[in-house]
Amino acid sequence: MTRKTATLVLDDGSMFHGFSFGFDRAVAGEVVFNTAMTGYPESLTDPSYAGQLMVLTYPLVGNYGVPPFSIEENGLPTFMESEKIHAEAIIVSDYSEEYSHWNAMESLSDWLKREMIPGITGIDTRALTKKIREHGVMMGRILIDDETGMKHGGIAGLNLQPGSLHMPFEMPDYESINYVDRVSCKEIITYGEGEGKKHVVLLDCGVKANIIRSLLKRGVTVVRVPWNYDFNKLDYDGLFISNGPGDPDTCDEAVRNIRKALAGDKPICGICMGNQLLAKAGGASIYKLKYGHRSHNQPVRMVGTEKCFITSQNHGYAVAGDTLGADWEPLFINMNDGTNEGIRHKTKPFFSAQFHPEACSGPIDTEFIFDKFVELL
Ligand SMILES: NC(=O)CC[C@H](N)C(=O)O
Questions:
Q1: What is the Cα–Cα distance from 288 to 248, expressed in whole angstroms?
Q2: Least crowded by CB within 10 Å, which of 55, 232, 273, 298?
Q3: CA–CA distances in Å: residue 352 to residues 54, 199, 240, 276, 279
Q4: What distance in angstroms lies between residue 223's CA and the mean position of ligand 1's atoms?
Q5: Which among 31, 48, 289, 290 is the best mutation to test ligand 1's pocket, defined by most ligand atoms within 8 Å of the CB?
Q6: Residue 163: how many CA atoms within 13 Å on its side-chain side?
Q7: Which of 18-32, 163-177, 336-350 is least confident?
Q8: Contact call for residues 29 and 53 (beta carbons, < 8 A)
Q9: Per the database record, which ranges form the Carbamoyl-phosphate synthase small subunit N-terminal domain (predicted)?
Q10: Cis (ω within 30 of 0) for the bond into 109?
Q11: What are the φ/ψ torsions at residue 223 (nearest 5 degrees)?
């Protein structure tokens, strides 16, 4: 089998040559690395990866295949975190077309092709990751060789399709794009309705299925609303703010609505983007981390205790802990780099986590966050 060559070109001009194993299309995005050893079906369908080229540092990828896209009774996909792949592309060291797993239905390559998502293999992902760690996250583009293997400009395998070095397509300005608006639901969706159940408004900034499932498991009705919907007009018992892609500073409409809710006493909980938006509504500011936290083994300490939890994470921005208002305090701190990993209000039932207690994939140490929230309703 002849494989098309593919090249990752970083914003600083450096190039990494490999082979295409996904859909042959030029794409651009923010290049981020994830050090988890498993979980590519969940990570690729996590809407928080919209606009990003996902580098997996675990060297062998694809050997357990891809599960089917089956839908549960509650309307949620069983094995995926949303209805489609949201990452712009996947970059690996050693793609395995051969796979074996009890629920595997197809190869990663076949899935990527069907969803029109590029994948490149044969990349020195250690060298790439070291570069990103030293320089910070960078934009990058993936260019695919054409059928004839034409070579242009001295760079093997680059053709003149839009996106080549000769006809550069516009590099997206990751920070200014409101990716949340692209991935959020467009209308209200209700899950788990039933007599006498508490109603949780879920502000959908790009919610992962397992967040909804984690709430439903605890016997509440989930009313999923678009990210910029003014939920304050609804009759509800608690507010849950989801994860989501991109820069939280693009979501001021949501921040304004959350701020209105802060005047009341109904429980509020947030995850990842939800933590950032809650912090912003409370007056704190957000900054961009050099290369983010994306893994299954981020240790966080619960402030005021000696308890450490191992958490699943996927974020590039963080709450500036020293900008929290007088009514707020840190709830979790990252034990690797000391950054803020969650906040809580000093007197009201408002709290949030920067990590992913719903896991999927990753450790489930912090699932108790859902219990706490539902107890407070
Ligand atoms: N998973 C998320 O919710 C990510 C939040 C935000 N987009 C960040 O990168 O920090």
A1: 10
A2: 232
A3: 26, 19, 9, 9, 9
A4: 22
A5: 48
A6: 22
A7: 163-177
A8: yes
A9: 4-143
A10: no
A11: -110, 100
Contact (CB, 8 A) for 357 and 347: no
Extract the tokens encoding 210. 């397992």
Query: Which DSSP helix (H) or strand (E) runs through 301?
Result: strand 286-302
Is-contact 169 163, C-beta < 8 A? Answer: yes
Q: Report whether 171 contacts 139 (CB < 8 A).
A: yes
Q: What is the pTM of this model?
A: 0.94
> What pLDDT, on the 0 to 100 scale, is given for residue 177?
97
Select from 176, 182, 241, 314 the residue to mutate for testing ligand 1; criterion: most ligand atoms less than 8 Å from CB: 314
Spatial CA neighbour of 145 closest among 11, 1, 29, 19: 19
Token pair in block for residue 163? 């996106």
Specify which residues 145 forms β-bridges with: none
Give the catalytic positions in this structure: 272, 356, 358
User: Look-up: residue for tokens 């500073």?
Assistant: 249
In angstroms, the CA 175 to CA 317 distance is: 11
At residue 169, the pLDDT reads 61
